[in-house]
Amino acid sequence: MKHLLRSCIMILLVCGSMPLANAQDELSPIQEVQTRLVKIFGAGGIGGLHSYSTGFIISPDGYIATVWSHVLDPDVVTVVLGNGLKLDGRIVGAEPQLHLAILKVDADDLPYFDLDDAASAGTGQRVLAFGNMYKVATGDEPVSVMQGVIAAKTRLRARRGAFEVPFDGPVYVVDAITNNPGMGGGVLTTRDGRLLAMIGKELRNAETNTWINYAIPVDELADVAHQIKSGTFRRSDTPKSRTAPPQNYRAIDFGIVLIPDVLNRTPAYIDSLLPGSDAAQQDLRPDDLLLFINGELIQSCKELEAELGRLEESDIVQLVVRRGDSLVSVELEAPEKDEP
Amino acid sequence: MPNHKPRLTILALLSSALLISVASTAAAQADGKLAVLEERALKQAAAIVAPSIVRIETVGGLERVDEILAGTGPTTGVVVSADGYIITSSFNFAAKPSSILVSLPDGRRFAARQVASDNLKMLTLIKIDAENLTPAPAAPRDSVRVGQWAIALGRTYETPFPSMSVGIVSALNRIWGKAIQTDAKVSPVNYGGPLVDIEGRVLGVLVPLSPQGKSDAAGVEWYDAGIGFAIPMSDIYDVLDQLKAEKDLHSGLLGITFQTKDLYSTPPMVDHVWYNSPAQKAGIKSGDTIVEVNGAATTRISQVRHALGNAYAGDKIALSVDRDGETIKVDFELAAKLEPYESAFLGILPERLSTVEPAEAAAPAGVGVRYVYANSPAAAAGLQRGDRITKFNDAPQNSAIELRDALSRTRPGEKAVLTFLRNGEPQTAEVELQKITAEIPADLPRSPIPLPAEKNDDSEKTGRLAETLETHAHDLWAFVPDDYNPDYQYALLVWIHPSRNTMEAEMLKRWKQICRERGVILLAPKAGTAETWTPNEIGFIKAAVESFVERYSIDPQRIVLHGFETGAALAQQLAFKERELFPALCLAGAPLAIQPPENRPDFPLQWDFVYGEDDPQGRKIEASIKALEKMRYPVSHRAVPGLGQDYPPEPAIEEVGRWIDALDRI
Hints:
The complex is a heterodimer.
Chain A: H1 2-25, H2 29-35, E1 37-41, E2 52-57, E3 63-67, E4 76-80, E5 86-95, E6 100-104, E7 126-131, E8 144-155, E9 158-160, E10 163-164, E11 170-174, E12 187-190, E13 195-199, E14 203-205, E15 211-212, E16 214-217, H3 218-230, E17 256-258, E18 270-273, H4 278-281, E19 289-293, E20 296-297, H5 301-309, E21 316-323, E22 326-333
Antiparallel strand pairs in A: 1-2, 1-4, 2-3, 3-6, 4-5, 5-6, 7-8, 7-12, 8-11, 9-10, 9-14, 11-16, 12-13, 13-16, 14-15, 17-18, 19-20, 19-21, 21-22
Chain B: H1 4-49, E1 53-59, E2 64-65, E3 68-69, E4 75-81, E5 85-89, E6 99-103, E7 109-118, E8 123-127, E9 149-154, E10 163-173, H2 174-177, E11 179-182, E12 194-196, E13 202-207, E14 228-232, H3 233-244, E15 256-258, E16 270-273, H4 278-281, E17 289-293, E18 296-297, H5 301-309, E19 316-323, E20 326-333, E21 344-345, E22 348-350, E23 367-372, H6 377-380, E24 388-392, E25 395-396, H7 400-408, E26 415-422, E27 425-432, E28 434-435, E29 463-469, E30 474-480, E31 490-496, H8 504-518, E32 520-525, H9 538-551, E33 554-564, H10 566-577, E34 584-588, E35 606-612, H11 618-630, E36 635-640, H12 650-661
Parallel strand pairs in B: 31-32, 31-33, 33-34, 34-35, 35-36
Antiparallel strand pairs in B: 1-4, 1-6, 2-3, 4-5, 5-8, 6-7, 7-8, 9-10, 9-12, 10-11, 11-14, 12-13, 13-14, 15-16, 17-18, 17-19, 19-20, 21-28, 22-23, 23-24, 24-25, 24-26, 26-27, 29-30, 30-32
Organism (chain A): Symmachiella dynata
GO molecular function, one term (chain A): peptidase activity
Domain PDZ (chain A): 254-325
């Protein structure tokens, strides 16, 4: 009986104490993520610009990834670790096209995210978002956590003020309001704390003109982050948007006369066709509305001319026009250009 | 057995420790499992309805809709019949696109045409030439519960799977009975898409809505705020055949106003009955109290609005009204349109009473005549300045307010009998009423402003003032005539400056003398940044006006919003939003910027336009005047020769001053 009792006690202690010990020693996934995040304080604070953001530690020796923003305007910013320790952060490098900047603080043995071990998620998956939202967390208080689902994984088509955002890669769109002041540079994780993406700046969706809640997948950032860390990174060329678009062809080169382009969004209706032209022979007609070029929707005369401008000689152009209530497909070839 | 007890205790303790730890671990595991199962169920619900969700693209159209930058991106629709009918939010076509395209989930694209719109529920039916589509299944009407999962879906993004936001059903029968409310994120990203339950049945179609707004874009400002609306799918299927038959559906109108604006604590007593409206045809009279709508008891105005808010034009309604203690039952059909309201006009300006003059004391009976309009019914009846009108159709009249109200219940063309005193002798005359004149007499005499009694220290400040409105931390300036007399009621001119220029010096120069002569206080709130006004500064302007109304003696009939150029758009927004506060609107160098609400007897609105003959906007302004006249609003206007886009010069402004002075005409 005595022996049995001792055995029972042993079993009970093993079974009962293990979870208890785990609860004391191990952090929950949420707490674990929070220890790997930092609060960043830098420039801003006037004219509606915020002077704070978030970063996430990507190496034990103090490299921190964050969003490239005006907060980083000074060379040195203040970085507050999860335990409340305040350090100077130096900007090591940045790739504005990816909205990514890398900082360095002098520290060792920091808890960190392994950029090569990021997870991925699909529409409808539950996610957590972490960040220095409205800088409500002070000192050693952990950053804020929000929950939501992935609304979509899609290409970013966004603008900041009147300017298109250069990054048009894939992003996670979230159904929670994750892109609040200070959240930029924070992270999106799975429910069990696996790193998914970096929360971006506050931007508007260029197509719907609404604020967009998005995060850039870590896969998009990892290579550049490694290169910046190792000092081998070279910035990408000037963004394409800054170079003048080519104007190789215009509608008239195909024999298409468009209606006068008087509005910002004048629909690309055909006014008339030059007799004998390729377009006339392919049975395009006046009053047809040009809708697609090579599968891309054309919303105005300007967009049509821009698309035609990019063509090269002998390129085949697939056009779809709306005639009445039906869609008609037509194929044209970019004609030879006369020598100037 | 002395040892047993402690041994048992240890065993019991250890066992319970084991149970607790196992239970908490199990709970955590169960919690995790449940979350995984829920997530799977949510995704499956979206997958079930995905074949019925289409992407809609539009080409061409307006840049802005109601001051909101119109989106150019794709929107969403829900298939409602296999032969190509698709229902979506009318918001998606508010920019009036020249072409609509639909992409099916299998990638096929079709040109679409608009078939009909449901203007009550803000939905539009479109049609493509396709067969064998998958109509969305509707969740049974009675199955929808507050608190159940609600998944908002859209096809705005270029992804094979619909975009998704997860929330719950927050409320039913919202916006006067029309909509399901959800906390899932609803915005232009998924307007027109379905809100589905966890079984993949469609609860409703997502639309922007607001309790007050009637435009396609009303409620859009609430996007992603945790308050979103969906029109119940079962309600949509109920009217689908009518929409398919190309019949536009409209809100059902009854044609009455209530005696108070308080929706929640006063009985629904009828005030005005619209001429030729369903209410008038059914014999409803001013003073009736609505006690029942379609069998449901109504003791408050809000209950009547709830009972009628979800009704279409053409719907049959059974009403019971209480008239002098007797219950009368009436049946009628709601109308889509009411004849524009138009007040009748007698043709006089009333004498303005001193505010301190106690009505019950020495005030002589009736309404004193200060001025008689030439060619008016009053002139034809021989009325003269100094006469006192004591009765209108046998009803005694003791104030200008009473007389104006009596006139508002008649129509131009009707005959009435006037009783008036001349030199103390009663006389009667029959008049044929006319429509209210927009003419401003050149010889309009000033209403005498009595000199103030001796000034004491408590008097409000006069002259040019500069203040900060503490409640809103916003600046304003004002001009109060130096001989301001609190015993006289002043007009209040609220100046909404254009972007980047408060025009303070110029306005003072133009208006100072008119303010003194015509008894006008000029109030000029300043935009937070001198750059431009933002729509949320409407609250500040309203507060500034209310503060002046409280501190100075102001005639509520003559509070005028005056905007120039870009300031005119905000002035219109404010006037339409705060109809009780602003009975008059004067636009300088600017046309209508937003669709005005209908003319109403309980919220009369008088208009004045002043602009340059050489102003490039001249044509638009003239079109605005015509549109307002068609709505039977009284509209005064003048085009200033030789003037372009500048603020009008003194002679034209002097005429605006006379218009303000005549706003209380009857």
